[in-house]
Design a protein that fits this description.
Layout: H1 7-34, H2 39-50, H3 54-77, H4 85-123, H5 126-132, H6 137-176, H7 180-190, H8 193-220, H9 226-256
Helix pairs in contact: 1-6, 2-6, 3-4, 3-6, 4-6, 4-7, 4-8, 4-9, 6-8, 8-9
């Protein structure tokens, strides 16, 4: 064991980091609600975060719907259940793929943008300037972005799932020839609004909190150098993606274990 390695000190530092992150998250949640008093800041960030992420979300949802339509049809055809294609595609999207894939794309597109923006403000000493003028940068800069990301995430997930269903319909009904009435009736009869759609919305909201917190926290704590901002954006993608996949397993186990 090297002379500089102190396990107790490392453990204390880890606990302190977790505590600091938890307090930062709670502070963001509280200030995010207060940001509603300045709706223009939130609306601008919703446009920046949500509108600029819309194209990749819609195109990805449509393409994944194409794949689900093809794979689902070939799988169901083995059992003579092609008419259940709409149910298979919709459940796959609203329960799992919609929230998860949207969150991963959101972390890669909007999360890195938020981290880079906050990190560059810190590198340019704008954060320090706000503190010198007695302006809380967390309330002025981070809170509106945090609230906007939480609002955008479930909306983008809903659009992703809708485009995926459309893609499954185009492949299954228009290209392969599955009966359109069976496609829609099986979907409408088999999808439960509370169990399936509701739980998917809950997942997307949790993922929105996760991505927004990771992106803003990493950007706010980044080293004020170009290399530090670059490392921070990479850290955001890695940490947010792993957190999304881990939380997805936990939420799925809690939501659907008794169904």
């Amino acid at each position: 064991m090297s002379a500089g390695f102190n396990p107790a000190r490392r453990a204390l530092d880890a606990v302190a980091s977790v505590g600091y992150g938890a307090r930062f998250f709670l502070r963001l949640c509280g200030l995010g609600l207060l940001a509603l008093r300045r709706p223009r800041l939130v609306i601008d960030q919703i446009h920046f975060i949500g509108n600029y992420s819309l194209s990749i979300i819609l195109v990805s949802g449509l393409l994944i719907g194409f794949v689900l339509g093809l794979q689902g049809y070939y799988t169901l055809r083995r059992y003579g259940s092609e008419e259940a294609l709409g149910l298979l595609v919709t459940l796959s999207l609203v329960r799992e793929l919609g929230p998860v894939v949207t969150a991963l794309l959101f972390a890669g597109r909007a999360g890195t943008s938020l981290t880079a923006e906050v990190g560059l403000m810190k590198a340019g000493e704008q954060i320090d300037a706000m503190q010198m003028m007695a302006v809380d940068p967390v309330a002025r800069v981070l809170a509106p972005r945090f609230l906007a990301a939480v609002i955008c995430m479930p909306l983008l997930a809903a659009l992703f799932s809708s485009m995926g269903v459309l893609g499954g319909y185009l492949v299954g009904v228009e290209m392969i020839g599955v009966d359109a009435g069976s496609f829609w009736s099986q979907m409408q009869g088999g999808v439960d609004w509370l169990l399936d759609v509701g739980n998917g919305v809950v997942k997307s909201i949790v993922f929105g909190f996760t991505v927004a917190f990771v992106a803003l926290f990493v950007g706010f704590e980044a080293d004020p150098t170009p290399e530090g901002v670059s490392r921070a954006t990479t850290t955001t993608v890695v940490v947010a993606s792993l957190a999304i996949l881990g939380l997805d397993f936990i939420l799925t186990a809690l939501m659907f274990s008794t169904t």
